[in-house]
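G., before I forget:
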Amino acid sequence: MKKSLDRYLLQPGVYYLQGSQACIEGAIVAGCRVYGGYPITPATEVMEHAALRLPQVGGRFIQMEDEIASACVLIGATWAGAKAMTATSSPGFSLMQEAISYAIMAETPLVIVNVQRPGPGQGYITASQEDVMQARWGHHGEGSIIALAPASVQEMFELTIEAFNLSEQWRTPVLVMAEEPVAHMRERLVIPPKDDIKIVNRKKPQDVGITPENYLPRSHDIMAPMANWGEGYNVNHVGLVHLEDGNVTKYSPRMHYECISRLQQKIEGNVNKIARVETEFTEGCEHLVVCYGAVSRSSIEAVKEAREERGIEIGFLKLVTLWPFPEAKLREIVGEVDTIFVPEMNLGMMKHPITESLRDRCRRVVSIPSLGILHSPEYILSKIYEELK
Amino acid sequence: MLKYLREEGPSGARLPLILCPGCGSGQVLNFTLQAVDRIILEDHIRKENFVFISGVGCSARLTSHYLNFDSGWTIHGRTLAIATGALLANPALKIIVFTGDGDTGAIGGNHFIHACRRNIDLTILCINNGLYGMTGGQVGPTTSAGTITTTTPYGNTEENFDLCKIAETAGATYVARWTTAHPYQTIRSIMKGIRKKGASFIEILSQCPVHNKTSPVAMLKNLKKNTIRAHKAGESTEGKILIGEFCDLHKPEWNESYQKIIDQFSKEKSK
């Protein structure tokens, strides 16, 4: 970026912003300079802010003909050397699955923000966490994915940066699974000094002394350096099962197994480096609330209230990373508990991997569903009291 | 031409091409590389700036696997969206997109229309063999009415697309159609397409002798016999496919227009 455009970066300080705006400001700080998108409620504000902001910092914004094209723009932009993103909402997210699957196979970093809305069909345009399973399983094939769940305007900023960092580090698509409440709310955003923000850029073959002649685009090391188009490396991106030089003609079940298991292990084998959780009152707790996204805000209030009002020993665990699922982290934190409550803005989706991970550590897992509206702390509390009476 | 081909890799040989004997796609690859070679020599454009993008199908096999260029063998129909993204990231790239009639006319039809409308600086080649070859000879959007294929066992009941008319109407700034029986004309058109600052669309009618169950030579002869130059005075075009250049004009290119917006911000400071 040209020095003269630096002044268009949001300076460190305290702001009052919408979640959608904070997301784009985070993306710009992370180095995103291409945005391709298609309007959809309730994600349109992200796109509108991108249209306003990207040319100011020397980036390019394009409104595409559909969500399929929007996701594909990111693939091309990334290969040509940019960091790129889009934002959409659930029906649009369905259309992007093809590109996500391809990007996993072609080890292409990109960031997709999904401001979820309820489904199926057009569903509605209100709050939802109904795409958390689509995020993991919506794309065809065995590819693993990274998905983060922001719970505040501050996290819309921070987790968008983290999404870019993870995508560059692991050469893979990263999803920011936002919800209508966090995208639309306005609250305090603190932008820290530049030096306090960690930015990760893809490792390029030039950086590690690999010449074009010796470059293997799909090295079977855990992370192959990524050469950009236009730099003389004759990079050959493919979506077929391939060998480490990108060759697809020597097909064998063995090379198939190696290619796909490496892609999967790259993510699942590094879950402890990738995934984060946040906890409170978990030390020796008798019960536990496990939650993510905006619901964690109501949940922590309910947990505090239950502890203060009735002296219930109940802990709080927030999944910052939904996928890869941080099973080992959960098992490290959770000892023996009686009831695990899982409030979600769906009929019980993340309840399943939570149950799978902690089946032997608890007596039961209780789902607290809500459709179309964010749980109030009182609602979560009433369900806890009802179950524990 | 061999310097432009990726004959070998660390995992062994890449050539020969996967294409069937007598297929026209190899000819199109030859025409394209001839055009690129001349552009590199005449216009002093770095080879590194050329990028080849393809989708899925017979035409797609030309690009990434066998070419010693930056390339992407991408998603069926999505080539133009991916190419658009690459140009947004680096407008200096010279992107040549290989598509087929399925890529362009069917699954990627919407992307095709909009890439032309945006007039973004792409050279879009469509190798039109009139059917889906890679999957075994199904009907496509360019298959003539009445044709029997594996998915029209009683004959095709639909009319076919004129891809050049679509491109021209949608806003492409250079549009031409040739056949594999017109090598020199095709090479010249591809050169014009690469030099054109904007969306260029060049359709190349090509033979698929395998699925048409006929000889390549007979098909090439038919391509000559069944086509007629557009704008050729005094001859009836009845029942013939028009070939030649359909438009060659200048309109602002997408990145040129967008750069003006970026410049507003980068120049403000120097006031």
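Chain A has a mean pLDDT of 95. The first strand of chain A starts at residue 13 and ends at 18.

More on Monday.
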